[in-house]
């Protein structure tokens, strides 16, 4: 049975960008949480790009901005600047809390060379 952390479900958004471009993706999360994480693939050691209790944080080319909407809805805007081919892959936004299961949202970035081709864009950016 595959590891649940490696699964991509039907609602995983896919974004296609060219090398050198910036991207901002909105993660929709249920409930709120004090610790915010941005990870590549899984939120395990070595894959964590941002791990903070602040509502805004930046680490190199990666930044996040958290907004609490209401009891069962929060958003985490993720920005990655100057995309490279190595930025392609699965990302996870996660809110960690002590009193209930963690909230997470996954997305995929595909970084291409050259001109943007709408034929290769599988999902419209939010």
UniProtKB/TrEMBL annotation:
Domain called Immunoglobulin: residue spans: 12-112
Stored Pfam families: V-set (PF07686)
Source taxon at top rank: Eukaryota
InterPro entries: Ig-like_dom_sf, Ig-like_fold, Ig_sub, Ig_V-set
SUPFAM superfamilies: Immunoglobulin (SSF48726)
Entry protein name: Immunoglobulin domain-containing protein
């Amino acid at each position: 049975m595959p590891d649940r952390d490696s699964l991509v479900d039907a609602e995983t958004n896919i974004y296609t960008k060219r090398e050198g471009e910036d991207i901002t993706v909105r993660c929709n999360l249920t409930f709120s949480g004090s610790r915010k994480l941005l990870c590549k693939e899984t939120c395990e050691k070595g894959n964590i790009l941002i791990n903070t209790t602040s509502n805004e944080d930046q680490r190199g080319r990666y930044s996040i901005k958290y907004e609490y909407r209401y009891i069962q809805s929060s958003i985490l805007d993720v920005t990655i600047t100057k995309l490279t081919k190595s930025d392609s892959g699965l990302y996870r936004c996660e809110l960690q809390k002590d009193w209930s299961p963690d909230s997470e949202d996954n997305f995929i970035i595909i970084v291409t060379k050259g001109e943007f081709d709408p034929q290769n864009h599988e999902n419209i950016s939010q």
